[in-house]
Each structure stands twice: as structure tokens, then as C-alpha cells.
Amino acid sequence: MIAALPEPAEEIARGILARVGKTAEAGKAVMAWDHASAAEAHAYLGDWDAAAASIRAYLARLKDEADAEAGGAGLGQVNAFAINGTYRQFTEVWGVNPASHPCAEIINLLRYALMAAEGGSVTLDAAQTQHLLAVAPESAGDENLQAALQGSYEKVFGAEGPMGFKRLMDILAYSRLVARVVTDSSRGNDRTVGTAFLLPGEQVHTSFAGRVLVLTNAHVISPDHAERPATVPGEARIRFDTAGFDDAFSLEPEMMRWTSPKREHDVTVFLLPDTHARHADLRAAASRLKIAPGLPPLMQRAVDPKGQPKPTRVYIIGHPMGEDLSFSLNDNDLLDHENVYGIDPGPEPRRIHYLAPTEPGSSGSPVFNSRTMELIGLHHWGGEAPRLNGKPGTYFANEGLWIRPLLNAFLLSQNLGLWTKPG
Q1: Which of 182, 258, 333, 339 places its Cα 20 to 30 Å from the Cα of 190?
Q2: How far is CA 136 from the centre of its chain?
Q3: 107-121 confidence digits (pLDDT tens)
Q4: Burial classification of residue 42, based on how many CB atoms lie within 10 Å of its CB (0-12 exposed, 13-18 middle, 19 or more buried)
Q5: pTM
Q6: Coil, strand or helix: which one is 206?
Q7: What stretch of H or E contains 124?
Q8: Phi and psi for 283 in degrees, rounded to 5?
Q9: Which alpha helices (H) appear in 185-326, and where do they start and end?
């Protein structure tokens, strides 16, 4: 018997497209995976515009299928597993690189979808983050992406309802105020030891108006030998992967204004000199950040047809394991916090517990209220923790320090009174 020859790849690709086309012509629903297969078939045939159209249909269909499984009402949550498989196919098999490929739209759409999908996350290097930040619906010459985002993609995914392009771009823009803390390694290159972020001075106190503060954990940078292996000021530098800088600059000892040990607020605060060469750029990056006047409730009002309230979530942006910038946007439920509602906090540390995929290197990351994108905390630790507010037992949680008591302690150390909401 003579073995059958394998079918040529071009015939396979055209066969896939023919089957998908017949399904649509017959008025039947084309399943999500069929749209994904069609996208790859178009890619093989070199028709990248058609491949992008199939990806838009694929993402929309994933949402429709999740909605149907959830009983309608548009509240179905798409799991990231499916999207990640398609994303890897186009990046690893088809080699689509948004920086150079003529159809970067495909990867942009899949990256945004991963950021918003349930259980999804995206880790981006500096060039990738800068590329996404440069993509906006109003961008000249980007009509295809604009149409996709204003069309089917606008309704796709979202942990707290649909998350459209503008929302994701707003979140992504906060990466400009997040830096990696680096020091020299034994090999003479940069070694990332944690994360730091910027605060606009007027958000902290009127005496700092127009200035820039830099915050990180005391266990990342501290002059106190008890905090070792923390890096000492002067040996630590910060580098902003997405702010367009090519170099890191040192955090000198004279820039340090206050430090609080790990057992308390676990923070070191630096004040950037207004004569610093990067001051204007960093002021612009920091200006979007707002400090939340209080902590959110643990549960939000009911948003699903069954009337069940949803847990409040937090967002964290940092450098886990010292690697590229990571956005933790899903599986980030706010578990508990030490807050007495209606009573202004003093300078004593108040802890916040939440779920988030953080790792060593995330220390010093900002913690945001996902609803408002206001800063609520400074991330510093994760593991098995005692439950808060006198509750018995332990659980696995990540822990941050509430930013408002932290600022109260800082301002009292500077003889400036207690923090008050700006404006």
C-alpha cells in the first residue's frame, strides 16, 4: 500500500476558510476557535488584514460564548487561557512583532484582551509598554485598530463589567510613574531589588507643591543596618522603563526625607531636587496620580442578575522577580483592611490584605483602588498572614500599608501636621 501524501499546507488553510465561510453562509454561529483557526489560515496565506478581522471576531465570540454560559445579561467572564493560546501562536509561531510587523493590530488586541480577561496578565518589557502607550484610538494612520476597539472589542472582557480600550489605556499610563530599584551586581550590571513609584508633592502637602516624591519599601532601600539586605541610599538607583529614559539615576542620601522600618510602615521617602535634570519629565509622569482619601468597602453593590455583591479589587503595577513591568489586574480581590469607617486614621500603620499575583521584586509597588485608580497603599509582603481585625486563624494574602496613615506619620516627622485631601 502506498501511503497518502500529506495535504499541502495551502490547501489546509483554504479548506479551513471554506468551512468557516459555509458555516456563516448557512446562518449558523461560528465558534470562537473557528475564528481563531481562520485567523491563522489567513496569516499563512499572507492576508493580514483578514487575519486581524478574524481576531476581532474571535474576541467578540469568546465574550458571547461566556455571556451565554453565564445566563446572559452581558456579565460572562472570559478566561485568559484561550486568549493566551492564540497570543502565543501569533507571537511564537507566526512571529508577529508589533514594533515591526505590518499587522501589529493583532498583538495589540490580544495583549489588551489578556490584561482584561479573568485570570489574565501581561508582562511587558520597556519597548512593548512604550509601543502600547503610543497606540491610541485617535492616532493618525491607525484606523483599523480604532475601528476594532470601537466595535467588537469595546464590549470584550472586564472583571467589573466591560473594559474598553480607554480604560485599559488609562491603567497602562500609570506605568510611567513606576520604576525598578536597581543596584550594581557582582558582575557589574544592574540588579533589580524592588519597585518604587512617584508621588506628586501637592498630593502629599502644600509645602511640596511642584515637587516629586519617590516611595519604596524600607526593606528595599534603607540606611538602617537592621533592615539589611536593603540597599543603602547612594547605592540605589531607579530606572523608569516606560518613561522614555535611557538611564537610571541615583537616590542619594541627601534626597532621603524619612524612613520607617518594616515592622511599621516599611517605607523610605525621597524628595527629588527641583534642579534635577529629570525633574520636569518626572513631574509630568507623576501628575496623574491621586491619593484616595479613604479605603473602599470590601464588597461593591450587586452587579449581576442574582443580586450578589462583588468583591472590591485592587490593581498593582511593579517588577516581580526583578523582571519586566507587570500589571496585576485580575484575581485581585480586596480581602480585608484595618480601617474604622468614618474615623480619620492617625499615624499608626494600618494593613491592607488582598489577593494578587505578586512575587519578590514587587516590594514597593503602588496599590490602586481598581474602581477609581486612586492610590490606597504601598505593597510590601505576601504569604501566610494572620487575619486582620481580631479574626482567628491565618490565610494566604498579600499585604500593603494604607497610604494615608503612612503619610500622616511622614508629615508628623517633618512637623507638617496630618494629611488632608488636596483641594
Answers
A1: 258
A2: 18
A3: 878 877 777 676 666
A4: buried
A5: 0.75
A6: helix
A7: strand 122-124
A8: -60, -45
A9: 201-204, 279-286
